[in-house]
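Team,

Forwarding the record for the chain on the shared tracking sheet. I've put the sequence and predicted structure together so nobody has to dig through attachments.
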Amino acid sequence: MRVKRYVVDALSDAVPLIRNELGKDAIILESKEVKIGGFMGMFRKRKLEVLAAVEPQPEKQGNKGASKKAGR
């Protein structure tokens, strides 16, 4: 499973990024509010951290078997 973390302003900003990078089969595992930046704990900006994942597509068995036979 391929998992990727996105830090965005809103969930609506994350969805197009997830679809472009991970594909249409990607799912959102978790989203939580985080505070980023600032100076000595002040002036931090609120962002949304989104964890998304996609299951890799299984490779066809025919291609793997052919390469093993060719190497013998």
